[in-house]
UniProtKB/TrEMBL annotation:
TM region(s), chain numbering: 24-46
Keyword Oxidoreductase listed: yes
Membrane topology according to the record: Single-pass membrane protein
EC number(s) reported in the record: 1.3.1.72
Gene3D superfamilies associated with the record: 3.30.465.10
Name of the protein: Delta(24)-sterol reductase
Localisation per UniProt entry: Membrane
Magnesium as UniProt keyword: no
GO annotations of cellular component type: cytoplasm; membrane
Keyword terms, alphabetized: Membrane, Oxidoreductase, Transmembrane, Transmembrane helix
Main subcellular localisation: membrane
């Protein structure tokens, strides 16, 4: 058996045509994807500005009209003739890497493309009411000038409210506020029978409120959400802390950076994230909000990381390994979106020279390429290549198991850098699809409270070292082993990623009880596909669609130990 600390030894492999297509894909990206992306971004920006110029009353009126269009469309469906219901969005538009193959089978489309408006910023209630296609860039553009922000702002501009609620969303403030869905105050949902309901945690639709997160839109159509706002300041005071040692030691330093062992709340930062660059080096970053006056005091350094010519953020943070610990002030909105321009570090694979000064200065303003366009232009061969030779996965693991997770990834995949971001997983009134470990509150582990267990997102995004060394690597097997590790360690895999889970293992990882209760109570069975069916890898056959329509495809529950 291989040493737990050492990567697996693999055989060399010969390059094939698709290797060269991937290697020189940057030509297509520079001359096609980037220019078109820039035009799309500009068009979206104009649309956002036009929407912002309208009165709240007019935006709400348009919203109500669009909701009625959705209701009318749903009532046009003939369950005996039409397929299962899904949105009309093209399969390649989704930001996630999972193949949206369910749309290749027969289905009944409902167009939600008009739902991309900020309906209201309520400063008294400290709530933003938004439609599901509002993205993070759009909402921070509206709220930051008011010194307000969502409690959890996912880093990439293109991530939408709907995706973050129906699926999964996290940010460096999640150690305080939980996942994105935990910051939602109310949701407006169109159910399978056309009813429009507003669900909160304490009204008659509270079960639906708790059932929507992680359901991937399989309980109804989310058409608006009211989300918690918090007061912020103009700058983020960011401290970069270099760490060297074993992966277990890096994991402990990461935990200590935001969860003080003495429990002193004054030592808990507003933001935290970690990046592990090698099996022996990492940098932890802690941030606290700071006023403009503080940032501009003599001797303080301001770093506007949002400028197109600036070094990519993850590479800038890496300089702490040589410089030692340092502090700087970053404009808050630029800090929120610090990973957008280089898509964390995926930009290095897409454009190998994209981090060079000459490229950043001349063409950096075109970055990032839209993920949807990258997917639309990759073709079947390149898509399959990425599934086999590339990893984009998030592992949501209990904080005390982060060291074990880092060692697992090093041994099985040897992917670097790795992203670390903590989040609370709350003990809720009902057992939702994701939930803390039973009895965690009695263990008194670092970071835990009586009402929430501290988890961490270990982000694994890059080509494994074996692929970079031209060695054999079986991506499907590696992901399967990762998923089994997650199941065995009460951990979770966000569903945007490519999954190798069969139905039984899917429901071993996630809890089905409350989700299935909502499916039956709100008429989703036979109208919307199940979350497993929607997340399943590979093409969906007509037979599978018919079985789902007839509600024959039942969830496979885990065997009791």
């Amino acid at each position: 058996m291989a040493d737990v600390h050492e990567p697996l030894v693999r055989r060399k492999r010969k390059k094939v045509l698709v290797d060269y297509l991937v290697q020189f894909r940057w030509i297509l990206v520079i001359f096609v994807v980037l220019p078109i992306s820039a035009l799309i971004y500009f068009n979206i920006y104009l649309g956002d500005m036009w929407s912002a110029m309208k009165s709240e009353k007019k935006r709400q009126k348009q919203h109500d009209e669009n909701v009625q269009k959705v209701v009318k469309r749903l009532k046009q469906r003939n369950p005996k003739k039409d397929g299962l219901v899904c949105t009309a969005r093209k399969p390649w538009i989704a930001v996630g890497m999972r193949n949206v193959d369910y749309k290749r089978a027969r289905h009944f489309e409902v167009d939600l493309s008009a739902f991309r408006n900020i309906l209201e910023i309520d400063k008294e209630r400290m709530v933003a009411k938004v439609e599901p296609l509002v993205n993070m860039g759009q909402i921070t553009r509206a709220t930051c000038p008011m010194n307000l922000a969502l409690a959890v702002v996912a880093e990439l501009d293109d991530l939408t409210v709907g995706g973050l609620i129906n699926g999964y969303g996290i940010e460096g403030s999640s150690h305080l506020y939980g996942l994105f869905s935990d910051t939602v105050v109310a949701i407006e949902v169109v159910l399978a029978d056309g009813r429009v309901v507003r669900a909160t945690k304490d009204n008659e639709y509270s079960d639906l409120f708790y059932g929507i997160p992680w359901s991937q839109g399989t309980l109804g159509f989310l058409v608006s959400a009211e989300i918690k706002l918090i007061p912020i300041k103009e700058y983020m005071k960011l401290t970069y802390i270099p760490v060297k040692g074993t992966l277990k030691e890096i994991a402990q330093a990461y935990a200590d950076s935001f969860a003080p062992r003495d429990g002193d709340p004054a030592k808990v930062p507003d933001f935290v994230e970690g990046m592990v660059y090698t099996e022996s080096e990492g940098v932890m970053m802690t941030g606290v909000y700071a006023s403009k006056e503080e940032a501009k005091r003599k001797g303080n350094k301001i770093n506007s990381v949002g400028w197109w010519f600036k070094p990519w953020f993850y590479q800038h943070a890496q300089t702490a390994l040589k410089r030692g610990e340092f502090v700087e002030y970053i404009p808050t909105r630029e800090y929120y979106h610090r990973h957008t321009r280089c898509l964390y570090w995926e930009g290095k694979l897409i454009l190998p020279f994209g981090d060079q000064f000459w490229f950043r200065f001349l063409l950096g303003w075109l970055m990032p390429p839209k993920v949807s366009l990258l997917k639309a232009t990759q073709g079947e061969a390149i898509r399959n290549y990425y599934h086999d030779n590339h990893v984009i996965q998030d592992m949501l693991v209990p904080l005390y198991k982060v060291g074990d997770a880092l060692e697992f990834v090093h041994r099985e995949m040897e992917v670097y850098p790795l992203w670390l971001c903590p989040h609370r997983l709350y003990k809720l009134p009902v057992k939702t699809m994701v939930y803390p470990e039973p009895g965690f509150e009695h263990q008194h582990r670092q970071g835990d409270t009586s009402y929430a267990q501290m988890f961490t997102d270990v982000g694994v995004y890059y080509a494994p070292a074996a692929v970079l060394r031209c060695e054999e690597f079986n991506g499907a097997e590696a992901v399967h082993r990762l998923e089994q590790w997650l199941i065995e360690n009460h951990s979770y895999q966000p569903q945007y990623a490519v999954s190798e889970l069969n139905e039984k293992d899917f429901w071993r990882m996630f809890d089905a009880s409350h989700y299935e209760h909502c499916r039956r109570k709100y008429g989703a069975v036979g109208t919307f596909m199940s979350v497993y069916y929607k997340s399943k890898k590979g093409r969906k056959t007509e037979k599978e669609v018919q079985e789902a329509e007839a509600a024959i495809l039942e969830p496979a529950y885990a065997d009791e130990a």
